[in-house]
């Protein structure tokens, strides 16, 4: 089977660290509530660094670790729900910064499943286009830009960060994926862009999106609905990816789930009958960085030696959209 090889990883932790206690000065919350309901303790937040900058820094480290030159990259896939511009794309900005002159550029918006989608897209480009030797997947998030710091039910959950992976194809190697979405759940987690209003619009054609009342451009979440979706989607995505290749999930060495809430991960582990020891959890130090959470955890696991060459790894993400996705591969 044709699989992937992650040649190099990198990450960028932004300049500021916020601990749970810091929130108590401006909202009615406590370290105890945040820790027990989510598992989170601290998170990095942007100190003014734009999203593309964070992604570029992570990408430079991944390219260095892979031992390749930026000119050898054939495709850059960037994932973000918090880009700096409507246009140009984050992948174009990163291509510019890296001088990756031979890379085509694609941005994807699949929220917390973004990196899993990006890896699977990279694999398909590597598989079908002999002109592409290396793919660069970058996940960069500046969620604090779209976080409402007067809403205690969301603001404690998110952090900023970026991570990147240099990927090549690998012959005769384990690989499966299962990606999906349920757009009927779009209203459970959203952040609006600017409304359609300019000199030529009368407003008569306004179409209701069915979402709750406007909340500016801030992230708005029905935490319970997303929680319910996540605890079902996480095991189902992994199981379906495994079934496609007749793979037994017990044979996974490491599972890296999206880092939204430790209770979601514990519930999924129980449903799958897999020990929590196999799950990488770093949300205590990073909180939820949306699409960046899985590659940040990959980079930490690679650099700390938790993932070793030959290990069978499962990645599983879920998030706004609603989207979900799992990838099984050999590191
Ligand atoms: N501090 C103190 N109290 C709080 C806080 C807070 N920060 N936030 C909410 N509360 C209160 C609520 O007001 C409520 O009070 P009430 O009972 O008086 O009404 C009480 O705590 C319980 O609130 P719940 O919403 O029931 O808390 P729950 O245990 O469900 O935890 C949470 C909320 C952490 C948001 C959980 O639902 C969750 O993790 N949901 C999933 C989020 C997720 O996975 N998002 C992923 C995608 S992110 C992306 O794609 C960008």
Which quaternary structure do these chains form? single chain
Report the helical percentage.
25-40%
Order of strands across the main sheet: 1-7-6-4-5
What is the CA-atom radius of gyration, in angstroms?
19 Å
List the ligand species.
acetyl coenzyme *A
Proportion in β-strands: 15-25%
Q: How would a textbook summarize the main sheet? A: 5 strands, mixed
Counted by DSSP, the helix tally is: 10
Mean pLDDT: 95
Task: Catalogue the unreliable spans.
Answer: none
What is the H/E order? Answer: EEHHEHEHEHEHEEEEHEHHHEE
The gross shape turns out to be globular
Kindly, what is the distance between the CA atoms of the first and last residues, rounded to a whole number of angstroms?
A: 15 Å
Can you count the beta strands? 13
Structural class of the helices, strands and pairings? Answer: alpha/beta
């Amino acid at each position: 089977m044709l699989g992937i090889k992650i040649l190099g990883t990198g990450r960028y932790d932004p300049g500021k660290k916020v601990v749970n206690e810091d929130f108590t000065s401006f909202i009615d919350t406590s370290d105890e509530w945040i820790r027990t309901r989510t598992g989170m303790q601290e998170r990095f937040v942007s100190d003014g660094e734009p999203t593309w900058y964070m992604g570029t820094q992570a990408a430079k480290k991944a390219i260095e670790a892979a031992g390749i030159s930026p000119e050898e990259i054939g495709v850059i896939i960037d994932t973000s729900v918090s880009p700096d511009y409507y246009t140009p794309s984050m992948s174009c900005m990163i291509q510019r910064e890296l001088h990756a002159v031979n890379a085509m550029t694609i941005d994807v918006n699949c929220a917390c499943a973004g990196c899993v989608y990006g890896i699977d897209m990279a694999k398909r480009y590597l598989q079908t286009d002999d002109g592409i030797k290396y793919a660069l997947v970058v996940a960069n998030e500046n969620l604090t830009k779209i976080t409402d710091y007067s809403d205690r039910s969301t603001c404690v959950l998110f952090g900023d960060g970026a991570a990147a992976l240099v990927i090549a194809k690998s012959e005769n190697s384990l690989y499966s994926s299962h990606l999906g979405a349920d757009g009927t759940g779009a209203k459970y987690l959203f952040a609006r862009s600017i409304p359609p209003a300019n000199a030529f619009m009368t407003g008569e054609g306004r179409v209701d999106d069915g979402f709750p009342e406007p909340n500016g451009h801030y992230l708005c979440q029905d935490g319970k609905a997303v929680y319910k979706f996540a605890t079902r989607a996480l095991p189902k995505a992994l199981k379906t990816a495994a079934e496609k290749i007749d793979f037994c999930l017990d044979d996974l060495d490491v599972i890296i789930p999206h880092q939204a809430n430790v209770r979601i991960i514990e519930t999924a582990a129980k449903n799958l009958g897999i020990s929590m020891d196999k799950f990488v959890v770093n949300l205590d130090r990073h909180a939820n960085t949306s699409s960046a959470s899985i590659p940040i955890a990959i980079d930490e696991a690679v650099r700390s030696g938790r993932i070793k060459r030959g290990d069978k790894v499962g990645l599983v993400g879920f998030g706004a959209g609603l989207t979900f996705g799992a990838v099984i591969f050999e590191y």
